[in-house]
Design a protein that fits this description.
Helix 9 links the parallel strand 10 and strand 11. The chain contains 15 helices and twelve strands. Helices cover 35% and strands 14% of the residues.
Length: 373
């Protein structure tokens, strides 16, 4: 950790998903600015065309400028892998990662993409530089450390990005976002946020397609509901412009937390979105039309989805529409499963995760955080 008489004067370099202002690094940056108790220089690695708050210092993502920034940092904060760089003596590399893994990741994944072993070696090299790997829950700790073969410090802190989902500010933000998106008062907002499929991006499988029938959604629920379509950034451009009645394409919205707050129900599949969305206390529907292929040929799972799902496991558009048409019945039917899910995966999401993490990485001698069995 940064130490010595000037350890509170630190240069912090942040990275998120190809140079975005997003995710756990964003939450930590914003909280640190709000606290104002650390004298720091903040630099973000910025991808082409990415938007950052006015006055934010940036370095170009992906080349020599990235490496120079990383090698000058006292603290590196990232939610994904970085290119090779030599850490400054005494520097800390905090890897927040970006979700509770239901699907298998890294060395544990079933699917092998082209040049897979070369890619893995580069990613494994990055892991050797990590000083801290965050775990959002006790349940996520084992899969995360195991997937990366990581044996270093992995405290269970909750996710800083989820602090925004609790408290009075969350309720106010919900109304602001719904107004910004043009969601009429009283209308049910259904957030559809599927993950990506490896064979659709890297292999010889089917081209990316949307499994949920948007026309059928509008015909069935158009008078009562609006669909917020949030595609994974790896495939968001594959459909081109989505122009369907009753559907808002929010794939480019800069903060998915806004969408979690605006929504009344989440429809997802094997995405980590369900673990974050459950912090809000609102219902979750799993649309798992290809679960056998995903389990056996693409990724595999750390947890049995049928055993842990906080809501129904459905395989057709019509079943999904039936579920979201009556949210009161959905909550009542799955209340106990939902309670157990939140207890297992959201137990550290109390709105103070960012402070826990900042106190940890900006302390000269951080104390280990216990992982419950």
């Amino acid at each position: 950790m940064p130490q010595g008489p000037d350890w509170r004067t630190v240069k912090i370099v942040y990275y998120s998903f190809g140079g975005r202002y997003a995710d756990n690094p964003r939450a930590l940056h914003q909280r640190l600015l709000a606290r104002g108790d650390v004298d720091a220089e903040h630099v973000w690695l910025a991808g082409p065309g990415r938007t950052f708050p006015a006055g934010t210092a940036t370095a170009a993502w992906g080349g020599d400028e990235t490496v120079r920034a990383l090698e000058s940092a006292d603290l590196v904060v990232a939610d994904n892998h970085l290119p090779a760089f030599r850490k400054k003596p005494g520097a800390t590399y905090l890897q927040t990662w970006h979700g509770t893994p239901l699907k298998r990741i890294h060395r544990d994944a079933v699917f092998t993409q082209p040049d897979g072993e070369d890619v893995m070696r580069r990613l494994d090299d990055d892991v050797t530089r990590w000083d801290v790997l965050l775990a959002p829950s006790d349940a996520a700790h084992g899969p995360l450390t195991g997937a990366f073969r990581y044996t270093g410090h992995a405290p269970v802190t909750g996710y800083p990005r989820n602090d925004a989902l609790v408290g009075e500010r969350a309720a106010r933000r919900r109304e602001e976002v719904r107004e910004q998106l043009g969601i009429p008062a009283g209308r049910t907002a259904v957030l559809y946020a599927p993950t990506w499929r490896d064979d659709e991006r890297f292999g010889d499988g089917p081209d990316f397609r949307l499994a949920l029938d948007l026309d059928r959604f509008h015909r069935r629920l158009g008078g009562d509901a609006v669909l917020l379509l949030r595609l994974h950034y790896l495939v968001a451009g594959a459909l081109g412009t989505v122009d369907a009645p009753g559907v808002l394409d929010v794939s480019a919205h800069p903060d998915i937390n806004d969408l979690y707050l605006a929504a009344d129900v989440l429809v997802s599949d094997y995405s980590s979105a369900q673990f974050d969305f459950a912090v809000t206390g609102k219902p979750v529907v799993s649309y798992v039309y290809d679960i056998e292929r995903y389990r056996d040929s693409l990724r595999g799972f750390y947890f049995d989805p049928y055993a842990i799902a906080p809501g129904p496991m459905l395989t057709t558009t019509e079943e999904v529409l039936d579920a979201v048409a009556d949210l009161d019945a959905l909550r009542a039917e799955h209340a106990e499963r939902y309670r157990v899910f939140r207890q297992r995966f959201c137990h550290r999401e109390d709105g103070r995760s960012a402070d826990r993490v900042l106190d940890l990485v900006l302390s000269p001698a951080p104390a280990p955080m216990e992982v419950r069995s």
